Amino acid sequence: MQTKTSKTALFPYVLWIAFFVITPIALVGYYSLLDIHGNFTLDNYKAFFTSVYLKMTLSSFWYAFLITFFTLLVSYPTAYFLTKTKYKQLWLLLIIIPSWINLLLKTYAFIGIFGLYGPINAFIEVLGFDPKQMLFTDLSFVFVSVYIFIPFMILPIFNSLDRLNPALIYAARDLGASAFTTFRRVILPLTMDGVKSGIQVVFIPALSLFMITRLIAGNRVITLGTAIEQQFLVTQNWGMGSTIAVFLILFMVIIMLITGQKKDKGGRVR
Amino acid sequence: MKQLIQATIAILVVSALLFYAADALSAGGGKSGKDTLTIFNWGEYIDPDLLKQFEKETGIHVIYETFDSNEAMMTKIQQGGTAYDIAVPSEYMIEKMKEENLLIPLDKTKIPNFKNIDPYFLDLPFDKNNKYSVPYFWGTVGIVYNPKLVGNLDFSSWKDLWDPSLKRKVFLVDGAREVIGMGLNSLGYSLNSLDNQELRKATDKLITLSPNVKAIIGDEITPLMVNNEAAVALTWSGQAADMLSENEDLDFAVPKEGSNLWFDNMVIPKTSKNIDGAHAFINFMLKAESGAKNADYVGYSTPNIAAMKLMDKEVVSDKRFYPSEEQRKTLEVYKNLGPDYLGKYNELFLEFKMSIR
Amino acid sequence: MKKLSATARVYLAIVFIVLYAPIFYLVFYSFNSGGSMNHFESFTLEHYKAVFEDSRLLVILINTVIVALLSALISTIIGTLGAIGIVTVKDSKMRNTLLSLNNVLIVSPDVIIGASFLILFTMVGIKLGFTSVLIAHVAFSVPIVVLMVLPKLLEMNKSLIDAALDLGATKKDVMMRVILPYIQPGIFAGFFLALTYSLDDFAVTFFVTGNGFSTLSVEIYSMARAGISLTVNAISGLVFFVTVIVVVGYYFITSRASKRTGGTQ
């Protein structure tokens, strides 16, 4: 009886997977085995293991890591402080609202803000310093990427923190734990699920960023996403593009295995 | 639980209201029984007044869609789904679309204004006898620069780009053919080269340019150059015209060793459901008045001689954007490289991109 | 506990300033008579006027909002049910497979999603336009809903359910009155992020739309080549202000209502 209800619940979701997840996987798997003329080949996979693509993979991972790290660093305290405010739901929504303004527009705004003759540099000059080159640097690239991903990390962490029983914290402090130990041994483990969600929702898409790599980094940062877009849209080499995508999916699965639930945490409900 | 239900109802109600609002706003179109024309064009590439004028004159209702890249446009047309009547691809894409049988030959008897086009721009290799396409706008690839920031360089030759004084001061557009083509041109080769040795030499030469490159970017190059974010930019003449109109310090040059001559042409895709309407539209756009109005609005170079007579003398005699016959001889139109070499150009471009640190 | 330390307040203030900086920049230039975001010439309302005169753009904006709201709603329902379903799966390998499948769309670049959906739709024969865009948006938003609801489900103390069953609750009761209220924050989080995904999407929408249906994102990206007109800034400014007012207003209305009935927050 119980399994029947959960099966009905799963049904639309499984349907969704069948249509909308299997399709891209099938497409990508199929095309990765074709060359540019439509013949069967394993050349695409061979080509992936050349220095150009391997360097790109490393670069993607490195930047995705940096972005996730800084997003987490900024988001966790923000989420924490938010849970302490009086109108926390409101503030939370106000944090999300900027993400509803179109991304390209915001990026153009950043181009204006960080420009050599933009407001920040104008301010720097007023203070007596030389204008700094901010656009097309690693720093601005990571900054803008973090900016984009912040709402995605704050929400799950906020949800976890919100349910945290404050009595646990008091108890820990009462028993003599320092603020840091309380955080490390009480707060963090209890909010780990939220943190893991946040990491997944930031790191995985960050691997295939390509719009920001061009707009803010001026293609000085090349990710796997850059290569895929190029292969699909410009070269129309769906074969190579799909191969890179296959590897992206593989990487994602590996990350899932590493950050996923090891124990049998589920399966106890009903 | 109650909150969830309330929220759901609120969303459905709002959506329904918006749906009626949208319907009311677009009711002025009248889709029932009237002729419609679906146009697929680049963004901001037509004077909207002209569309209204066309609708008034012919009673045909215009549905307008935009795209931002040739390849994306072709994918959409190939997949069917929408019956586009008019599209405006670039010349190399027209070659490709012809090969894939995506175009309908034009009936010149329905386009008497065809005679307004400068014969120099007709009968080009990508569409012999203009069987399938009519020129819409054209231009070149060249160098935009700020004379105040580059000393004595005037970029009459490609080699000026490599000048050591330009360290980290050069923007390049994100286009494999434009950049590799520039590399080839700078060595005196054709930008349609299929010679592996030439391509290798060109890529190596480009890699020596890396220290001067600030960034490789897309359309945002326009506001950036207007803001003097860089001193020099390799870009299309159309964007150059935009930049120059907003930043008076900037200048534009097409180097003497040669460069690219590009076209955006009007075509009728095979999926068209209103072929007569499409022809009427093409004819309308080829009118002298339409051509002049459109060129004024968009700012690119028009191939329509009759229109040029109606335009500002200063604009049409500007040799930077309407190059002399002599210079035109050095300009090459892109030929379709075929999938293998297209792939090769892009791989080399990727190699070049990764050398920029 | 309710009072925030000074550092906390400064920190939050900085975060908000940074988050809103580009928005204010955009809105600032929407009043620019100069035609672009490069140089402020003089104050004008002409772009706002132009918004209301451009019926095509208004229809596009309305369509964008409708698609966002409906796709977020539908994907939230599917995703929530999915998360609940995943958590009940006993075999951990099966669970991990489902979760990995869930994340395929998040890791896939938009162009691949767009191209594969386009092929799927044309094979099945779905007409391109509002329907195809709505379905596509639902499709790529489901995973993020799952990822937002899942942690709440996992945090939930199972003894709550056991207790409810012990006290004679039916399975429906358990669902409606124990599980759903507990995971509600996750549901809302998923909904709002789904909204974000939908509003921001360009590549997928571009591929699966047709017949004149367009969203704001597609319009903006197409404009980039010739320069984004400030009418777009004006529209964004309007959308932004309306959203803030709606959100703030709704919040105060509901919090006042629950204060009156003494309900739980």
Describe this structure in words.
- The complex is a heterotrimer of chains A (270), B (357) and C (265).
- Chain A has 270 residues and is mainly alpha-helical.
- Chain A contains 13 helices and no strands.
- Chain A has one domain: MetI-like (MetI-like fold, Orthogonal Bundle), CATH 1.10.3720.10.
- Chain A has helices at 2-32, 43-48, 51-83, 88-96, 103-114, 119-126, 138-162, 166-174, 179-190, 192-206, 211-215, 224-234, 238-259.
- The longest helix of chain A is centred in the first third of the chain and has 33 residues, at 51-83.
- By secondary structure, chain B is an alpha/beta fold.
- Chain B folds into two domains: 33-138 and 263-316, D-Maltodextrin-Binding Protein, domain 2; 139-261 and 323-354, Periplasmic binding protein-like II (D-Maltodextrin-Binding Protein, domain 2, 3-Layer(aba) Sandwich), CATH 3.40.190.
- Chain B has 14 helices and ten strands.
- Chain B has helices spanning 2-26, 48-58, 70-79, 91-99, 176-186, 196-207, 221-226, 237-246, 275-285, 288-298, 305-310, 313-316, 325-328, 338-354, and strands at 36-42, 61-67, 86-87, 133-145, 170-173, 213-217, 232-236, 251-253, 259-267, 331-332.
- In chain B, helix 2 links the parallel strand 1 and strand 2.
- The longest helix of chain B has 25 residues, at 2-26.
- Chain B is globular and about 60 Å long.
- The N and C termini of chain B lie far apart (54 Å).
- Chain C is mainly α and 265 residues long.
- Chain C is built from eleven helices and no strands.
- The model of chain C has no long low-confidence stretch (mean pLDDT 85).
- Classes of the chains: A mainly alpha (270), B alpha/beta (357), C mainly alpha (265).
Secondary-structure map with pairings?
The complex is a heterotrimer of chains A (270), B (357) and C (265).
Chain A: H1 2-32, H2 43-48, H3 51-83, H4 88-96, H5 103-114, H6 119-126, H7 138-162, H8 166-174, H9 179-190, H10 192-206, H11 211-215, H12 224-234, H13 238-259
Chain B: H1 2-26, E1 36-42, H2 48-58, E2 61-67, H3 70-79, E3 86-87, H4 91-99, E4 133-145, E5 170-173, H5 176-186, H6 196-207, E6 213-217, H7 221-226, E7 232-236, H8 237-246, E8 251-253, E9 259-267, H9 275-285, H10 288-298, H11 305-310, H12 313-316, H13 325-328, E10 331-332, H14 338-354
Parallel strand pairs in B: 1-2, 1-3, 5-6, 5-7, 9-10
Antiparallel strand pairs in B: 4-7, 4-8, 4-9
Chain C: H1 6-30, H2 46-53, H3 55-88, H4 92-107, H5 110-124, H6 130-155, H7 158-166, H8 171-200, H9 203-208, H10 216-223, H11 230-261
Helix pairs in contact in C: 1-11, 2-11, 3-6, 3-8, 4-6, 6-8, 7-8
